[in-house]
UniProtKB/TrEMBL annotation:
Pfam families: PspA_IM30 (PF04012). The keyword Coiled coil applies. It comes from Crinalium epipsammum PCC 9333. It comes from the Bacteria. This is Phage shock protein A (PspA) family protein.
Length: 256
């Protein structure tokens, strides 16, 4: 018996595991709502049958009570007419109908109690189904979000563990190195141009200074205000003196 119990337990455990893995929350939620709605239909049918049975019993009770009252009146009429035998017969019929009415009244009271219970169960089931429908949409959305997150985490795990991510990172590093080499080459080329322009700018500055000095030497000196001009014009330096000074300046520039 111990071996068979263990085998039975293993079989049940495996079956439960298979069923648990096969359960899709969205499908199970839909099926649960369908099952509850079927139960609701059956309960409504039971309530409708109970109401019809209660009405039939109520009709029988009213009829028996009416018959009892009728035979009561007939017994009084026969006794008034002096016919005791007929009055006795009427009272017997009245007793039978009264007993029938009493039995039907007890059955009607019991039926009313069952009817109230069934109506309360019907209202409770309708409320549960309405609540379940509201929760179903929310639970389906949560299940879908959980499934999507699980798939995303799995994809992230595969990216971190396979060679594709490593190859991607290597290619990214190569692109960064190529950009760095390109930037370095551009900076070197730009540096040569800067040096060339600096040389050109320094040459222009010497020529400009030379032209300014020539203009200063050739321009007449200004006369101070309030003084009379000299009787003789100021003597201008000769051309040989200017050329000599120019040669000296050029020698100074070349020695820089």
């Amino acid at each position: 018996m111990g071996l068979f119990d263990r085998i039975s337990r293993v079989v049940r455990a495996n079956l439960n595991d298979v069923v648990s893995k096969a359960e899709d929350p969205e499908k199970i939620l839909e099926q649960s709502i369908i099952d509850m709605q079927e139960d609701l239909v059956q309960l409504r049918q039971a309530v409708a049958q109970a109401i019809a049975s209660q009405k039939r019993i109520e009709q029988q009770y009213n009829k028996a009570q009416t018959e009892a009252n009728s035979w009561q009146q007939r017994a009084q009429l026969a006794l008034t007419k002096g016919d005791e035998n007929l009055a006795r017969e009427a009272l017997g019929r009245k007793k039978t109908n009264s007993e029938t009415a009493a039995a039907l009244k007890a059955q009607l009271d019991t039926q009313s109690g069952h009817m109230d219970t069934m109506k309360r169960n019907l209202i409770a089931l309708e409320s549960k189904i309405s609540e379940a429908k509201t929760k179903k949409d929310m639970l389906k959305a949560r299940a879908q979000a959980a499934k999507a997150n699980e798939q995303l985490q799995g994809a992230m795990g595969r990216l971190g563990s396979n060679n594709a991510m490593g190859a991607f990172e290597r290619m990214e590093e190569k692109v960064l190195m190529a950009e760095a080499r390109s930037q370095s080459a551009a900076e070197l080329t730009g540096g040569n141009l800067e040096e060339q322009f600096k040389l050109l700018e320094s040459g222009n500055g010497v020529e400009d200074e030379l032209a300014a000095m020539k203009a200063q030497l050739l321009a007449p000196s200004p006369q101070p205000q309030g003084t009379l001009p000299p009787s003789k014009p100021a003597s201008t330096p000769s051309k040989s003196e200017v050329d000599t000074e120019l040669e000296q300046l050029r020698s100074q520039i070349d020695s820089l």
